[in-house]
């Protein structure tokens, strides 16, 4: 029986997000909240491993109360259990404070159900760093394996996992002791439409919700804004370059003008032509 | 923590197959500026097996000092071994800033190191500066889906750390013969204590698309209407001997593979010539190509933002303009060839 914990995050859908041009802040009202797209692949992989080896999949997230909906999406994909840690004292966390808080939740989960494997997404589309996964691994002191795009084998008896880690020009096959943490690529799997029974289960599902006080051995100074070494000092709209010159005339004439400019860079084309 | 004890700017030197990664050379260029502004040393930290000779390159590209860990245990990159070396070195020599390329290796390593130190880590930085007096690192990056830029500080911890995107900083022209201080370090790690083993490295034989290395890029957008329409981009690229780029919407439509995507969630490119055809010029696209030497935009909408971000613009239908361009260019090139042969 494997126990796999997947770390997930609810994020604003940045595809639809609108910025307030005056204040340079994100208009959160316009952005629907979704399960971080990268994390859908993390959950899907955990569910596949559960089907392959038997076991249970728990998901854990730190976020505001509506993050319950992201947990429900995970139940639809096939997760068994969901934990939300939510508290005002978590607010404003950067990656260091996030990995601290999520680790505390994982430690509590592990007390009753020891964990064999933790899976994270490659990155969150709003945090956009990919730092939280390795951070959690370091805090628990298990090996972090990033860029995982295939799980070859999980051997619980002998306590190892073999995966492919994506490299720029191929991949490497790595063996690690269990427990360990994977950050998975989007390409690791395709997430199919959820089966109906899962949807029904998700609709009724009530995750376990913890506040800071429910966790053990928490150093409040390491949480939220206070526990975050990085601070955003200013935001600004990226400057726009001056803009280009338009060519004049009919299409042929315009192309002629362009060509005379390009041919001024003849050296570029000669090498390519092998002259 | 006494900040006075922390001095110097460090660049993590990523290497593979006996070559220093170009992003590390770019970071030496950027790091040189920070170090000079602060009046401190610029150092490279080089970890690997049989890598000592690479220090020469690191000096030529601007470092004053190189810390080297050259041991068999570092043959392959592994988070835990590299992290231990870096932590030990940082503990001993106390740099005020450490920067890494925002590659998979650089990000992996920096995330682990930041947690253990602990310190703040800014990801995917595109601008770096430092406060002369305080040594405070100003690391700026696109935020909230690239709609805005944010400057991120780490006031209370040293060293300050950032990963930096490839192709946004400029490497210095290497100064041949330039040298510096080489400090050889070693770490007592036993292979049997390391929890991960690299069993095999598999190089994919299919030629990987590396559009970030192309001199000419012809990029197409959603304006080409369909997979079939997008083929004129391939034709023009082939005629010019260039690579094919694409906007994210094109990749999402499945007209081309993600390796061709230019922009914030794709590749940053700096070719000599960049064509943006049927691309509206969303900010997330612009951040990935704005440093190209010559940007040419073709779009039928005169108001399209891409025209604010190009050197030359043609307002018109791509399906009318591009075929003329291909034909004229072929003619011009064959004329060149004829005159070349007659001269020779
Ligand atoms: C978090 C986040 C990350 C993103 N990352 C990226 C990224 O890395 N790269 C990226 O490109 N985008 C990225 N985007 C998406 C980006 O915001 C835009 O949606 C996308 O770049 C638009 O693609 P497009 O210009 O091809 O399409 P459109 O915006 O639909 O533009 C099509 C253009 O074609 C023109 N056109 C139509 N017909 C013709 C014709 N016959 N001839 C000539 N012109 C014609 C139109 O006038 C229009 O300007 C990201 C968005 C988010 C939120
Ligand atoms: N608030 C959070 N709660 C739980 N897991 C998180 C949280 N933030 C990030 N993660 C995990 O860490 C991964 C990387 O996120 P990030 O470092 O923000 O890019 C995500 O894909 C999640 O798996």
In N-to-C order, the SSE pattern of chain A is EEEEEHEHEHEHEEEEHEEEHH
How many helices of chain A?
A: 7
- Rg of chain A is 24 Å
Q: Name the chain pair whose interface involves the most residues.
A: A-B, 78 and 83 residues
Structural class of chain B: alpha/beta
Biggest sheet: strand arrangement of chain A: 11-10-9-12-8-1-6-7-13
Bound molecules: flavin-adenine dinucleotide, adenosine monophosphate
The DSSP helix count of chain B reads 8
Number of strands of chain B: 18
Poorly predicted runs of 5 or more residues of chain A: 271-275
Using the alpha-carbon principal axes, give the shape of chain A: globular
State the helicity of chain B in percent bands: 25-40%
* Termini Cα gap of chain A: 65 Å
Work out the strand percent of chain B: 25-35%
**Cα-based radius of gyration of chain B, to the nearest Å:** 23 Å
| Percentage of residues in helical conformation of chain A | 25-40%
H/E topology pattern of chain B = EEEHEHEHEHEEEEEEEEHEHEHEEH
- How would you name the oligomeric state of the polypeptide chains in this document? heterodimer
Low-confidence stretches of chain B: none
Characterise this structure.
The N and C termini of chain A lie far apart (65 Å). In chain A, a hairpin with a 4-residue loop joins strand 3 and strand 4. Chain A has 7 helices and 15 strands. In chain A, helix 2 runs antiparallel to helix 5 (196-204) and helix 3 (95-112) packs across helix 4 (132-140). Chain A is α/β, with parallel strands linked by helices. The model of chain A is unreliable at 271-275 (pLDDT under 50). With 344 residues, chain B is an alpha/beta fold. Chain B has 8 helices and 18 strands. Chain B has helices at residues 22-38, 55-60, 79-93, 104-116, 227-240, 248-252, 283-286, 318-343, and strands at 9-13, 15-16, 19-20, 42-48, 65-70, 97-101, 121-125, 127-130, 137-143, 148-154, 160-164, 181-185, 196-203, 216-220, 243-246, 273-277, 294-299, 312-315. In chain B, strand 9 and strand 10 (148-154) form a beta hairpin. In chain B, helix 5 (227-240) runs parallel beside helix 8. The relative contact order of chain B is 0.11. Classes of the chains: A alpha/beta (275), B alpha/beta (344). At the A-B interface, helix 3, helix 4, strand 9, strand 10 and strand 11 of A face helix 4, strand 7, strand 9, strand 10 and strand 13 of B. Strand 15 of chain A pairs parallel with strand 18 of chain B.
């Amino acid at each position: 029986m494997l126990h796999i914990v997947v770390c997930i995050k609810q994020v604003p859908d940045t595809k639809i997000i609108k910025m307030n041009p005056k204040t340079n802040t994100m208009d959160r009202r316009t952005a629907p909240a979704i399960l971080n797209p990268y994390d859908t692949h993390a959950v899907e992989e955990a569910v596949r491993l559960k089907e392959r080896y038997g076991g249970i999949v728990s998901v854990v997230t730190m976020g505001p109360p509506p993050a319950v909906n992201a947990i429900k999406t995970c139940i639809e994909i096939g997760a068994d259990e969901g934990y939300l840690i939510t508290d005002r004292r978590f607010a404003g966390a950067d990656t260091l404070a996030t990995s601290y808080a999520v680790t505390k939740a994982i430690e509590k989960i592990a007390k009753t159900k020891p964990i064999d494997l933790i899976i994270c997404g490659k990155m969150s589309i709003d945090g956009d760093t990919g730092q939280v996964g390795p951070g959690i691994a370091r805090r628990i002191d298990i090996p972090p394996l990033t860029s995982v795009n295939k799980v070859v084998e999980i051997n619980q008896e002998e306590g190892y996992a073999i995966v492919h880690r994506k490299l720029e020009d191929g991949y490497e096959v790595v063996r690690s002791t269990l427990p360990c943490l994977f950050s998975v690529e989007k390409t690791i799997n395709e997430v199919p439409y959820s089966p109906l029974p899962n949807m029904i289960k998700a609709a009724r599902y009530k995750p376990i919700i913890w506040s800071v006080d429910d966790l053990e051995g928490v150093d409040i100074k390491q949480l939220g804004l206070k526990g975050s070494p990085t601070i955003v000092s200013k935001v600004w709209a990226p400057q726009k370059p001056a803009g280009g010159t338009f060519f004049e005339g009919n299409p042929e004439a315009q192309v002629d003008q362009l060509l005379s400019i390009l041919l001024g860079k003849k050296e570029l084309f000669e090498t390519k032509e092998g002259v | 923590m006494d900040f006075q004890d922390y001095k110097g700017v460090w660049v993590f030197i990523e290497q593979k197959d006996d070559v220093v990664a170009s992003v590390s050379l770019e970071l030496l260029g950027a790091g040189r500026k920070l170090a000079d502004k602060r009046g401190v040393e610029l150092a490279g930290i080089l970890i690997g097996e049989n890598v000592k000779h690479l220090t020469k390159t690191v000096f030529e590209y601007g470092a004053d000092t190189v810390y080297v860990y050259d041991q068999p245990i570092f043959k392959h990159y592994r988070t835990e071994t590299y992290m231990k070396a870096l932590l030990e070195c940082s503990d001993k020599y106390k740099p005020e800033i450490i920067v890494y390329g925002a590659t998979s290796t650089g990000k992996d390593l920096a995330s682990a190191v930041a947690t253990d130190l602990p310190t703040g880590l800014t990801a995917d930085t595109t601008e770096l500066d430092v406060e002369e007096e305080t040594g405070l690192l100003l690391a700026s990056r696109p935020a909230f889906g690239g709609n805005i830029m944010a400057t991120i500080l780490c006031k209370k911890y040293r060293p300050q750390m950032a990963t930096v995107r490839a192709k946004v900083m400029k490497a210095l022209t290497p100064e041949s013969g330039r040298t510096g201080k080489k400090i050889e370090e070693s770490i007592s790690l036993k292979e049997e204590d390391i929890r991960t083993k690299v069993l095999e490295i598999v190089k994919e034989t299919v030629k990987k698309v590396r559009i970030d290395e192309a001199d000419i890029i012809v990029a197409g957008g959603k304006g080409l209407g369909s997979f079939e329409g997008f083929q004129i981009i391939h034709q023009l690229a082939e005629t010019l001997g260039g690579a094919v780029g694409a906007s994210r919407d094109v990749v999402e439509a499945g007209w081309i593979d993600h390796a061709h995507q230019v922009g914030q969630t794709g590749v940053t490119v700096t070719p000599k010539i960049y064509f943006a055809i049927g691309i509206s010029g969303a900010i997330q696209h612009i951040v990935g190509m704005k440093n190209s030497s010559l940007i040419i935009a073709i779009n039928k909408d005169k108001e399209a933002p891409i025209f604010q971000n190009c050197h030359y613009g043609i307002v018109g239908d791509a399906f009318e303009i591009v075929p003329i361009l291909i034909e004229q260019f072929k003619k011009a090139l064959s004329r060149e060839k004829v005159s070349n042969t007659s001269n020779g």
